[in-house]
Design brief:
CATH architecture of the largest domain: Orthogonal Bundle
Largest sheet: 3 strands, parallel
CATH class of the largest domain: Mainly Alpha
Radius of gyration: 23 Å
Keywords: DNA-binding, Transcription, Transcription regulation
Organism: Roseobacter fucihabitans
Shape: flat
Structural class: alpha/beta
Pfam family, one: LysR_substrate
Number of strands: 5
CATH superfamily of the largest domain: Winged helix-like DNA-binding domain superfamily/Winged helix DNA-binding domain
InterPro entries: LysR-type_TF_proteobact-type, LysR_HTH_N, LysR_subst-bd, WH-like_DNA-bd_sf, WH_DNA-bd_sf
Oligomer: single chain
CATH topology of the largest domain: Arc Repressor Mutant, subunit A
Protein name: HTH-type transcriptional regulator DmlR
């Protein structure tokens, strides 16, 4: 019986992240039939069924869950090792792209200057947008977000505390009064975040 290799673990990891054969195919940049073939190969190598299909969905078998746990550990180790090796360079050079929301640019701009002063060969590019980025695909090198990622292959680090406040124009306060309690807000007009953001803790506090 052949010994398993990284590709056998990687296909299970892609299935878990993608949630389906089609989703795994998109993550790996291949077609669905290729995913099915690689899955069949992995099951042959491990000598056990790894998923149970049910229509368009599937669930992992006990053997599949064990392989997935190992794959997540391996992926995290590979990412951490890769980051460590890259950080070992004494004279880093190139461009580091940092994705952040627009309101964080003013906080990061001084940091970018400090980094470039310390490492003349290193250039910091700030990418301000509310759109999500895929670090694994190289959309950016670092992402500053208020929501923790779910990808086990990413390294998460605390950066700073970000507060939120309510604001009103002077004219509005003169015409409508200043709220003194939380209950008072129910009688005021509020400009809120868009519906896609409201379920998130970082944005839904106003609800």
């Amino acid at each position: 019986m052949a010994e398993p290799n990284w590709s056998d673990f990687r296909i299970i990891l892609a299935l878990a992240k993608g949630g389906s054969v089609t989703g795994a195919a998109k993550l790996l940049g291949v077609d669905a039939s290729t995913v099915s073939r690689r899955l069949a190969t992995a099951e042959e190598v491990f000598g056990a069924p790894l998923i149970i299909r049910g229509g368009g969905k599937f669930q992992f078998t006990a053997e599949g869950r064990a392989v997935l746990d190992a794959a997540e550990d391996m992926d995290a180790k590979i990412s951490a090792t890769t980051s460590s090796v890259r950080c070992m360079r004494e004279n880093p050079a190139g461009t580091v792209r940092i994705a952040c929301v627009q309101t964080a640019v003013h906080l990061l701009r001084p940091l970018a200057r400090q980094v470039m002063d310390a490492f003349p060969g290193l250039h910091i590019e700030l990418m301000s947008s509310f759109a999500s980025v895929d670090l694994a695909k190289g959309d950016a090198d670092i992402s500053v977000r208020t929501i923790a990622p779910t990808d086990p292959g990413l390294v998460v680090a605390y950066s700073f505390t970000w507060g939120s406040c309510l604001y009103a124009s002077t004219d509005y306060l003169l015409s409508s009064g200043r709220p003194a309690t939380l209950e008072d807000l129910s009688t005021h007009q509020l400009v809120q975040y868009g519906k896609p953001l409201l379920p998130l803790r970082a944005f839904g506090w106003i609800e």
